[in-house]
Request: fold
Amino acid sequence: MGIFEPYRAIGYITSNVPFCIQRLGTETFVTVSVGKAWQIYNCAKLSLILVGPQLPKKIRALASYRDYTFAAHGNDIAVFKRAHQVATWSSHTAKVNLLLLFGEHILSVDMGGNMFIWAFKGIDQNLVPIGHVLLDNDFSPSCIMHPDTYLNKEGPLQLWNIRTKRKLYEFKGWNSSICCCVSSPALDVVAIGCADGKVRVHNIRCDEEIITFSHSTRGAVTALSFSTDGQPLLASGGSSGVISIWNLEKRRLQTVIREAHDGSIVSLHFFANEPVLMSSSTDNSIKMWIFDTSDGDPRLLRFRSGHSAPPVCIRFYANGRHILSAGRDRAFRLFSVIQDQQSRELSQGHVSKRAKKRRMKEQEIKLKAVTAFDVAEIRERDWCNVVTCHMDTAQAYIWRLQNFVIGEHILKPCPENPTPIKACAISACGNFAVLGTSGGWIERFNMQSGLSRGSYVDKSLRKSYAHEGEVVGVACDSTNTLMISTGYHGDIKVWDFKGRELKSRWEIGCPVVKIVYHRSNGLLATVADDLVIRLFDVVAIRMVRKFEGHTDRVTDCCFSEDGKWLLSASMDGTLRLWDVILARQIDAISVDVSITALSLSPNMDVLATTHVDQNGVYLWVNQAMFSGVSSVDSYASGKEVVAVNLPSVSSLDGSQHKDSDEPAMNGSDFTQSFQTTQFDRYIPDLVTLSLLPKSQWQSLINLEIIKARNKPIEPPKKPEMAPFFLPSVPSLSGEILFKASEKANEGTSGTLTGGDEKANGRKSVSSSLFLQLLESSAETKNFSAFTDYIKGLSPSNLDVELRMLQIIDDEDDEQQEPHRVPELFSIELLLDYFIHEISGRNNFEFVQALVRVFLKIHGETIRRYSQLQDKAKKLLEIQCEVWQRLDKAFQSARCMVTFLSNSRF
Reply:
């Protein structure tokens, strides 16, 4: 177990597995596959409803029926009811490729030609198939549909009767492999999509071809769907990402949705009796198109998308609530860590309109892939606050995250000799952007106007540049005093930010590939080709730390917010955590897929990583922020590298190390260990509240006012026909008792004298659960059980329990000694309880309300007995001490609020 544990993966929308649609009531839901897990979206707003648990292998086929979801992975089929797996079907000996909902049965087909029939009614007992069909050896199914159950393969088409398990008919075929088939609303008519790009509408009863359509673009037909809202339309999608709409009545092409997706179309589906088409693609997106225009062309209604190519740069934003991500798909995205619906792509202008106008693809219009970017949150509401460098581009672009759009200005350094920009940085004030090019030029720009504010030139060089060769990185300090730049050849230079003069320089001795600067502590981390990470003090101009351990190219590194940790990732598959103060490695984990970029949130609670050939962003949780262990050495691995699985799409799955068979700590164990270690310590000068509803402890204080207000006006009337009730015994706790306790029966049996009656009456008080818990807690000096009990009582029941301890003023009590009065002992225990709770500063507001009611009832009793007065004085001293500390903390806040409210800006 390491410091960072897998949490979940974000940015995954769908995969290359066809989705399945189902309608429940008035709402429609779509189930999609995301690698080894599945997700359910509500089609009304494409909002994420449910995420299934992760399976051992990637999902190959999906089917759904009401609350059940069927997922084929490897040779098995997992059956889920909502998010809980209820069964596993394991009769296949080859990989399952196809699933089909067939009435109350599921048909599954594997690569070996075996077709099994499963019944999911009473699924707990039906773990074996109810039928099996062995297909011909030369017949390899590629898709399955059910008008009357049809299977097809490369070339021919076969018709099977599932009940009799017999092949009824085999069609001749069309000299091309069949990629998809779908049944039409018309009886006996199906549409077949072939690999040669042709769509054939066929009558299977007569074995006659009705019409054939040909795609204008190259590639196979991968998805088909018939419209059911009355319009004679057929939608077909191809491997080129184009969706064609065919008019069956006019037998011609009606419209084409060009650039519908960036990848091959996986699924198409017309909603029942609605002019809405849903499409999914291998580009990690789902889109809905509506046919409501006058010319019949569809328009994009809503969509959900993620990166279609692996992201290469990520950075936390908005105090860790969002993640900025730049991918190789030329997209610049903002992912929400909390609300998945808030994830979106930043707009690059009217890309689709410009593409249509120039008759180009949208991908060609978009900016090239981002190679580096920087962000400053301080000026988000004023002007653009993000600057990006793009691949082989001699100009930088600025973005405004408040509106999620690209900015107006384009930054062009060194227009006389333009070279691609390789590094960028924004100053701490958010007013300036510093750019470094591959030619060694460094120039400063104003973020608001986009104008140049001078360049940095090293006069000692032969050319008027800052560095000889490529600028690897630039950084600015927190006070706009220094600017640090690094060249590829290992020269680090410190410049005066305003005067743009060179102040100092030093050489590393080997090429540098990346730098990271921490503004708070002034440390500069450099990554060189020799796989060594060096830390330099920029002010003292000397190396202070040197970290070695990676065995392959270091891809990224970052500091923690407090500057005590340095995280580094390498192509050797490891993520290493270095303690800057102790100058040693404190943790290391290894994953199957190498990390390409990483970022630690400002709160240091979540780590985000991207990986080779992975389109999502993976989140890891920092255990040091959520456990009660004060030292990270208790769960850090030190120099040992621990193999860990990547986070899954579902956050419900616990992580498990590859080299250990023991599962990770579950939620209850973690919560228990957290409570036993964390809540034993309290924060100085602060108090802990009870987390009870405000009305509960306020009603305890104002109980008399509530009773007076709710006093009945008329006496209760006897009903004419009283219902039958079982006789019950009244109790203080409110529980219904049908039999009196044995102690009460023994105490009331027989004839008792007057003195005995009074003594037994007092002894019966101790039989109350309230006093039993109070006495047992006082003996063990642990009042947690008693506190939980009184917190569960209603205000009226708690008031009655306190009033039951009142001493009745009679002559016998005045003549008795104090230690012989049992009520005094109970009152003394309550005072001890109040002293314990207030000194521990636990359940503060509840105990304060309880003390107020207690003093109101028993204040006169405390005044009469000296032993109670000593306890009350001690309670007063502790109360004053705790409140003075708390009031001192409040006073600073009150002074600040008063000052700001009276100030005029």
Remarks:
- The first strand starts at residue 4 and ends at 10.
